[in-house]
Prior knowledge:
This protein has 151 residues and is mainly beta. It is 13% helix and 32% strand. It has three helices and eleven strands; from the N terminus they run βββαββββααββββ. It has helices spanning 39-46, 94-100, 105-108, and strands at residues 6-9, 15-18, 23-31, 59-62, 72-75, 82-83, 92-93, 113-116, 119-123, 127-128, 140-148. The strands form three sheets. Strands 1-5-8-9-10 form a five-stranded antiparallel β-sheet, with no helix packed on it. A four-stranded antiparallel β-sheet has the order 2-3-11-4, with no helix packed on it. β8 (113-116) and β9 (119-123) form a beta hairpin. The chain is globular, with a radius of gyration of 15 Å. The two termini are 18 Å apart.
Amino acid sequence: xxxxxxxxxxxxxxxxxxxxxxxxxxxxxxxxxxxxxxxxxxxxxxxxxxxxxxxxxxxxxxxxxxxxxxxxxxxxxxxxxxxxxxxxxxxxxxxxxxxxxxxxxxxxxxxxxxxxxxxxxxxxxxxxxxxxxxxxxxxxxxxxxxxxxxx
Length: 151
């Protein structure tokens, strides 16, 4: 069973190795213009109901919606955690989300959670929160790449 972890930052690092779960997470800012969009990002914006997850754990979220945050935290889950999944009008208990999505118990314990201040904005490798979804108004996206058991 992996141990709990907690990392706090004033600004997001370019990358972090989560040694407790042997996973590398990278953060990249990506500018978006309305006239020229990369094929990958264009696909992400077309449907706001998509979860933006690719098989390799690629996620995009609207950086402008989190950039004013005073603290960024990556940590393991706690029993009282709540999350508003993309496309959902209300928040749900994280435990219920994991059960509904049939995420194995062993993976639930290893899923890194990204918080901005006290808001859970991303289940790294799985899903973003509705509050930070990429829309046609997004100017800068935060691209999150996950490399499990990379080192």
